[in-house]
Amino acid sequence: MPAKQPRTYADIIRHSFTSLLTTIGIVIVLTVSVTLVVDQLLRAQNQAEQLSASLQTSQVTNFQDWLAINRSSGLNSHNTFVFIKNANGSTTSLLPHGNALANASTWSVPFTHLTYFKGLGLFFAETLKTGGRTYHLYIGMHVLVGNLHVLIAVLIIAIGLSLLIGLFFVRRLAKRISAPTIQLAQAAQQAAANPETTQTELPQPQEPVEISQLAKDFNQLLASQNGRLQRERQFISDASHELRTPIATIRGNIKLIERRGDKHPEVIPESLGFIDQESLRMQHLIENLLHLSRADRAEVTLQPLNIAQLTQSVVTHYQPLVTQPLSFIGPGDPVMALGDTDMLHQILTALLDNAHKYSPADQPITVTVAQSAGQITVTVADQGTGIPVADRAHIFERFYRVDASRSSKIEGSGLGLAIVSQLVQLNQGTITVSDNDPRGTKFTVILQATDELA
Prior knowledge:
Blueprint: H1 9-58, H2 63-73, E1 80-85, E2 91-93, H3 99-103, E3 106-108, E4 114-117, E5 121-130, E6 133-140, H4 142-193, H5 209-260, H6 267-297, E7 303-306, H7 307-318, E8 326-329, E9 336-339, H8 341-357, E10 365-372, E11 375-381, H9 389-392, H10 416-426, E12 430-435, E13 441-448
Parallel strand pairs: 8-10
Antiparallel strand pairs: 1-2, 1-6, 3-4, 4-5, 5-6, 7-9, 10-11, 11-13, 12-13
Helix pairs in contact: 1-2, 1-4, 5-6, 6-10, 7-8, 8-10
């Protein structure tokens, strides 16, 4: 069985409108027809009751008596017939042409007083017994049938014209409604055809509201995609730049050894030192890139941790590695938060590394743990040179260095804080940077507090 072809807006609207009009037309035809039939049957029944009452009173036996009753009752003699069955079994018709009706084949409509006479039409039938005679009354329903024919024909013509006119307007309506969607789809196809380029905003119509909202959502998605694409390009450019320098240094020193190593062996140890230093720099850069890559794909299960104990342990183990005095401030009681032990250890170490690199050797670094309003804050504050306000929005970007003039003087690839930001997000926390008092920088990590014990 072939798959059903998907339909357009116009097809769906036309099909729905046609079905609606057809259903309404059928309901109208049935309602009017049933109403007319019931009305005519009630009229025929009323006539039959009047005629039955007259027959019971007069008990006519011939055509002249019938004419007198017919004239006094106002009945239509051309539409009404009476047959009399006598006690001896003979049948008398009160109209000269009634014998044709008596001899015609009949078919009774179930559950009604209607009888169909072949070749003569539909009649309302009633039987009355009085004075030894049985009167069979037949009132013709020709007017009803004729009216039904005319009514149905008129309704069919009216419904047909309504369908034609309606389909014309529906076609225009469907085209008007689907135009913004088609325009949006074409723009989206053009955007999808060039995934490597920065995408322009899709057209956003004012109406329908649903399509306008869809276009707005698409534009937000495109803006996010453009930002991600721009960051990836910048990341590739920065990574290439960072790798190009040590590779060039390594190749230059290798060439120097090849050219002058035989005659000037003293250059060999110095060149090997440069090669070792630059290769170590490349190793750190690649390790940081791998950290970022793993963090982007990591799935973390957060568990209750004593942040105060973990932070104090990191500070204690880090103190012998730096010249700055480290101090820890925190409550003596357990401070429980949701997090991952290894990642939080890496976050704290990276923040301490950053404070160590940008602080004078004799200035203190303070690590503080506090709890308030269902949150745990871990703050690393230094007395260094500080970070300008304009740079604070970018310090968590990959390869961003605050002071380009010091980039060569201070070791680092500009990936440390980007890794910290990614790890904090994985722990469902936030990180902010602000000025320290009286000088320096303060990094604050905010985590979710929990009442559970580890």
